[in-house]
Each structure stands twice: as structure tokens, then as C-alpha cells.
What we know:
eight-stranded mixed beta sheet, alpha/beta, 10 helices, single chain, 8 strands, 18% strand, Rossmann fold
Amino acid sequence: MTDDQLLRYSRHILLxxxxxxxxxxxxxxxxxxxxxxxxxxxxxxYLAGAGxxxxxxxDDDRVDVTNLQRQIAHNMERVxxxxxxxxxxxxxxxxxxxxxxxxxxxxxxALLADLVAGADLVLDCCDNFATRQAVNAACVQHGKxxxxxxxxxxxxxxxxxxxxxxxxxxxxxxxxxDSQFEETRCATFGVLAPLVGIVGSLQAAEAxxxxxxxxxxxxxxxxxxxARGMEWTPLRVARQPHCPVCGAR
Length: 249
């Protein structure tokens, strides 16, 4: 670690739970972020600020003025740009040492099979059920921890799925792939602007803990937030033996 890095990350290094060894793990880590919008914005900025050495950003959307209410990685000057490139610019302004790869296309199974295999950890910051299932399946296949977040209206949730742990469920244990869910998008239902920041910040915190090897992750727990009364509700989630994705593992 260089003198400049020792200074930049000094507030992490002062923490007994991280120290120099933990910070070096972050510098050597590779995080894959699927979605560069409301959740992906704080996730990307906090991971970059924390010194995660490599970040891959996947999103096929472009910055729209309606995004700026909550998607803090973007600004007026970058309206019309791909969100991946806009987020890359925001990361560079905070920490130019971070190596960022942008993938400006929809995350399908074939793409995820390649990208997940090369990452240390995956963060699901997308906004549709099919992509969440594809991300989960790739994480189970390659044995990668998944930090999943969601936010709509005034409701948020976060969970960590890590099937390297025999007791950990996967996303499909909680939300089976054949379930009939109504797609809930911000463009239709709205979302409280800071809510995505709350959930995204928690996702970043869980990712940093996992990558630095500190604390205990939200594995086997779903944490739900009702921002109307700022009430948190934790739920225990067990692996389902007949899960079509991880049940046979």
C-alpha cells in the first residue's frame, strides 16, 4: 500500500475490524454491480470511495432527467449518456485509482455467466424480476456471494445470499422463479428519493464487510424497511431443499 493510499483509506485502517489487511483485501477485490440506477449509484460510489480495486458496471439504460431525483451518480450534464459511462465518470471524480469496466447491455444469462465468474462478489441493483433470477442463478453456479437490494414507493429490502455456506438460501428460495409477481417500477409507482440511498448504502456496507472479511453478513436474513414509520423488520430465511436453483447443491 502506498503512502497516498494509507492516507486516503486511513479512516478504514483505524478500524480494528478492517486495518491494513482488510483494506488490502478491498484493493484487490472485484465487485460486479448489476444496475447503475437508484441502488447502483450509492453502491458504486461507496465501493469506489472505500477502495474496491475493480468494479464492473452493467446497465443498458441511459440517463434521463427523471432519474436525477434519486440516482446520485448522474447529473444534468450527462443526461442522454449511458448510465454505465455516467457512473464511471462519477467514480473517477471520487477515486481515479479504481479500475472500472462498463458493460452497456442488458444482463442476460450468457453475459452473466461470463461476468459473475470473474467477480469476487455481485450486487443486484436491478429493477426487474427476470434479471434478478438470472443474476442469482449465475451466482449459485459460480459460488459467488450476492448482495440483493430493492426499493419501491416507501418500501425497501436487503438480503445477502451466499451458497458457499450450506445453510444459506439463494434468492430463488425466497422468490421462486415461477412465481407470478407484478413488476413494480419507479416510473409507474414512484419511489421516495432517499430510500434508494438507504438500501444502496446497506448493500455497499454488506459488500465491504464480505470483501474485507469482517463482521457477519445478512446471510439467511431478509431485512425489510417501511419508511412511512421508519420501521425495520428482519425475517429469517432458510434454504429450501427443493429449490430449483440451489436445492440440489
